[in-house]
Write a structure and sequence with these properties.
The protein has 224 residues and is of the alpha/beta class. The chain contains 9 helices and 7 strands; from the N terminus they run αβαββαβαβαααβαβα.
Length: 224
């Protein structure tokens, strides 16, 4: 769950996020690390996160630690402080935090995670494919063009390779295409330690059903 407090509570705070979770029968949420100010990339950032939960949460809350470019030194400290694991992205989030990791940095994170016995979650869209894609436009078709399947497939292939070389546990988030699932399945058959998740909207909807300019259906990666 992306809770943006501290720093951006108007996007989503812990009171609203955990109230919604409780209403839906969810007893535990795991907070993603990079959308708060400061992000959860250090023990100090984790402490700030924990502080804003006090007295407002309605379900149990755990935390992922963030890995950003040049930020690998804090992984062991964050693990000691109790994070569930780590999150890294192959592309910038667009929040201005410079959070993208290179493939070499991802391999370093996977090696460190393996030593700690913890997974590294990865947002796997290849940046070179996104840079080559058209700029996003005002409708769903344009959004699809700006986040092509090829970007996810190339990103997943890169993560599979990194996990295979390091022996680390990579967990791919919000997988949105059948082609990516095929790569993941093949990697698992080869014994590479890789897991994945998707989201209900990728399983229950397709692009043809999305109203052209209804932003309630916007997701990244897009509904395909």
């Amino acid at each position: 769950v992306h809770v943006s407090d501290p720093g951006r509570p108007e996007w989503e705070g812990f009171a609203s996020a955990t109230t919604a979770a409780a209403a839906g029968g969810v007893a535990v949420i795991a907070d993603m690390p990079l959308e708060a100010i400061p992000p959860t990339i250090s023990v100090a950032g984790l402490s700030r996160k924990r502080a804003v939960t006090r007295g407002v949460i309605r379900v149990d809350v755990g935390f992922w630690g963030g890995v950003v470019g040049g930020g690998l030194l804090d992984m062991e400290l964050l693990a000691d402080a109790g994070v569930f694991g780590f999150f890294a992205a192959l592309t910038d989030s667009g929040l201005g935090s410079g959070d993208r990791v290179s493939l070499a940095e991802l391999e370093g994170a996977l090696q460190t995670g393996a030593g700690l016995g913890l997974p590294v979650l990865v947002d796997a869209e290849a940046p070179e494919h996104l840079l080559a894609a058209p700029e996003p436009g005002p409708d769903h078709e344009a959004h699809l063009d700006s986040r092509p399947v090829a970007a996810e497939v190339a990103g997943v292939a890169a993560v599979v390779g990194a996990a295979g070389r390091t022996g680390g546990w990579a967990h791919l988030v919000h997988v949105s295409s059948g082609e990516a699932v095929q790569l993941i399945s093949e990697a698992r058959r080869m014994g590479i330690r890789i897991t994945a998740e998707t989201s209900p909207h990728y399983l229950t909807m397709n692009a043809e059903e999305v109203p052209a300019t209804d932003s309630r259906f916007k997701a990244s990666p897009p509904i395909r």
